[in-house]
Amino acid sequence: TIHQPSSYVFHQFDKLLVLAKGRVCYFGKADAALQHFQDIGYPSPSGVNPAEFMIRITNADFAEEGQVERICDSWDAICKEAKPSLSGVLTCGPPEVAPRASARKQVGKLFLRAVRSNIRNPTAFAGRALLTALLVSFVCMAYLGARKRNQENVLNYLWAVMWVQQLPAFLCIGAVPNFAREHSCFRKEVKNGLYHPLSHLLADMLVHVPIWFLLAASAIAPSSLILDTPVIHTPELWLLLAAYIGFNDTFAQLCGGLGTGSPLGIMVFLMQTILNMIFDGTLLAHEGEARQVSGAHDPAPEPRLVRTTTTTTQFVDFSRKVCQIRSQFWNSRAGEVCSWK
């Protein structure tokens, strides 16, 4: 803004806004301002700088009493006359709804937004990957004796396998509060019609699936070095653990969307983690499970993950019951443990 420009500078203006006492005296083309003031009874003397003229007639210190109010009232009247009548608009039917962006564009925009969010806040997943590697390394060091392939270390190796699976998945609990905030934003945006829920689901999967594999790799790498697990089966283990982390990450999203705040979601996530550990085949003998409880927990992924991973890595004929290992663990019956490859 220029308070009082020279006549040369004034003629370079395209548009002009004149204010006085917090009201608009004129707003429009600069070359039409003098004509407007002349039309309302305030012509400009010849040879006077237009900017100086308009400042003088709209300044209450120099103008007559009530002059500024009359100038502003004249402009208000002109604005009201220039506004189109609403009667014609109301008879034209409901307004047309603007076309929604295509599904491809929605997914692309949501994907880029999620990527930028992770880049700006790397602790959400990069911090989890680092913490997973440190925690798994610390736990595997406690089971360092399982590197020796003998019958006494079968149980130690089994427990080490369980912790390698459980720890990176359990750390998904830290994402529950973040998912609670995202759920609130998601509901508002979908309600306002910004995008379709399926577009958000697809974009979320495109962002999070690589992260699940990264978290799985951060757990498998240190455990393989410390426990000396067979490298030949690493791709299968990587896929299994990434799928299980994805299950827990998705469940954390559901817990964050409970609508009653993150504390309840965290407690629900803890509950399913404890149930998975109880029924994964290492803490409870299958023969001792109640039939109703066992049937209710059959869809859970943890028991299958433990069985598949242990069979793939070291054990021969490792069935769902894990009868031989549990016999030694619960009844101390020697000689009933699974054999090593």
From TrEMBL:
Its main location: membrane. One of its GO terms (molecular function) is ABC-type transporter activity. It is a multi-pass membrane protein. Residues 106-275 form the ABC-2 type transporter transmembrane domain. It is found in: Membrane. The chain crosses the membrane at residues 125-145, 157-180, 201-221, 241-270. One of its GO terms (cellular component) is membrane. Keywords: Membrane, Transmembrane, Transmembrane helix, Transport. It comes from the Eukaryota. Residues 3-58 form the ABC transporter family G domain. Pfam families: ABC2_membrane (PF01061), ABC2_membrane_7 (PF19055). InterPro entries: ABC2_TM, ABCG_dom, ABCG_transporters. This is W protein. It comes from Symbiodinium necroappetens. The lineage of its organism: Eukaryota, Sar, Alveolata, Dinophyceae, Suessiales. The gene is W.
